[in-house]
Amino acid sequence: MSVLAIARMGHPVLLQRAVEVEDVSALHIRDLLQNMRETLTESGGVGLAAPQVHVPLRLFLYSVPPARSEGEDDPPRPVQALINPILEPDGPDMMQRLEGCLSIPGFRGEVPRYRRVRYSGWDEHGARVEGVASGFCANVMQHEMDHLDGILYPMRMTDMARFGFEAEITRYGVKA
C-alpha cells in the first residue's frame, strides 16, 4: 500500500461532484480505502475524501480522536469509511466550527455546520450503516461530504474575516 498525493485547492478534481461507487466491495475500492487510510495517518488529519486523492468517487474516511471528542453523544471513533454516503441535518441547530483542510494547508476558517446529522451508506466491508452523528463527528462528516459535492470549506464561510493562516489564528484566535 502507499501514501497518496493530496490534491490542493485549485485542482479541478476538488470542484466536481464525485460519482457513486458501483461495487462497494470491489478490490480496487478496498485498496483505495487502505491507501487513503495510510495517507490520512501520515497527514495527521481526521478525515479524507476520495477526491482529495484525485479519485472522483463518493467515499470518505472520518474519525474522532479522543482529544476531539465532545462527550457521550460524540465518542472517540477510530478511522471509519463511508461509501456512497447520504447526510441530512438532524434538526435545525447550527454552530460555527473552526475548520482546516488537507487540501488547503496552513489555513483555518469558521464554517456554519449542523450540530447533528443523520447518515447512511456502506462501510469498508460492504455492510449497510446508518446512524446519527453529533459534535465533532458531525462536523467532520459534513466537511468530507462537501468534498464529494465539489465544495471547499471557504465556499461555505459567511465571514471571510474569520479565515486566516493557521499559525496566526492559533496565536491570536479568530476575532470578530
From TrEMBL:
Domain of life: Bacteria
Active site residues per record: E144
Keywords, ordered alphabetically: Hydrolase, Iron, Metal-binding, Protein biosynthesis
InterPro entries membership: Peptide_deformylase, Peptide_deformylase_sf
Gene3D superfamilies in alphabetical order: Peptide deformylase (3.90.45.10)
Catalytic activity: N-terminal N-formyl-L-methionyl-[peptide] + H2O = N-terminal L-methionyl-[peptide] + formate
GO molecular function terms noted in the UniProt entry: peptide deformylase activity
Cofactor remark: Binds 1 Fe(2+) ion.
Cofactor(s) essential for the protein: Fe(2+)
EC code: 3.5.1.88
Positions contributing to Fe cation binding: C101, H143, H147
PANTHER family per UniProt: PEPTIDE DEFORMYLASE
NCBIfam families hit by this protein: pept_deformyl, PRK00150.1-3
Function: Removes the formyl group from the N-terminal Met of newly synthesized proteins. Requires at least a dipeptide for an efficient rate of reaction. N-terminal L-methionine is a prerequisite for activity but the enzyme has broad specificity at other positions.
Family (UniProt): Belongs to the polypeptide deformylase family.
Identification of the protein by name: Peptide deformylase
The organism's taxonomic lineage, starting at the top: Bacteria, Pseudomonadati, Pseudomonadota, Alphaproteobacteria, Acetobacterales
Gene (name only): def
